[in-house]
Amino acid sequence: MKKVAIIMGSDSDLKALTGAMDTLKALEIPYAVRVISAHRTPEAAAAFARAAAGEGYGVIIAAAGKAAHLAGALAANTLLPVVGIPMKSSTLDGLDALLSTVQMPSGMPVATVAIDGAVNAALLAAQILALSDGALAGRLADYRAAQRAKVEEKDRQIFEAYSNL
Ligand code: RP5
User: Fold this and answer.
1) pLDDT for the residue numbered 97
2) What domains are there in the chain, each with its CATH number?
């Protein structure tokens, strides 16, 4: 099965990415986690992206904050789909990273999820891999069904606790 790469620009991003790791683990998708910076280690970023397809990766998740160029810098060096996660930082609440990640020039796409949207990044990566993996598609369908059941149960509880009919 193809692997997912979770690349973060700094170890200070790590805590916000646990949702991505937990989600990939729950879906039984192998993943590697790396700290590679578009600005502080630009050669490593290019080298990783160039080698990724040959090393068995199917999707790259790139998380960075502030002037967040990591996802775009990786995308520029691979044909693999790149999912960008803009990270919330202390100064501009992640708006800086959101704009830096989402506003890619035509010809070089990055699939950008919400600020700190680690779980959706993992799910999007899983959906991409599931296009050629029927067993994974089944696990994703189960994930959706479990999510639906949880919401239906909350609906039932809140209906009973708060309605005044
Ligand atoms: C970005 O700058 C990183 O992705 C991180 O979100 C932000 C701050 O990095 P540190 O100064 O905490 O290492 O490149």
Assistant:
1) 98
2) 3-134 (3.40.50.1970)
Ligand 1 centroid to residue 46 C-alpha, Å = 18
Rounded to the nearest 5 degrees, what angle is found at the Cα of 134, between the Cα atoms of 149 and 21? Answer: 60
Question: Tens of pLDDT along 49-78?
Answer: 999 999 999 999 999 999 999 999 999 999
Per-residue confidence at 10, pLDDT binned at 50, 70, 90? very high
Percent with pLDDT over 90 in the chain: 98
Pocket lining for ligand 1, CB < 6 angstroms: 9-10, 12-13, 37, 64-66, 87, 89
Q: Rounded to whole angstroms, how far apart are CA atoms 150 and 91?
A: 35
Q: Output the CA 116–ligand 1 centroid distance in Å.
A: 13
Ligand 1 mean position, distance from CA 49 (Å): 19
3-state helix, strand, coil in the chain (%, to 5): 50, 15, 30
Residue nearest to atom 2 of ligand 1 (CA): 65
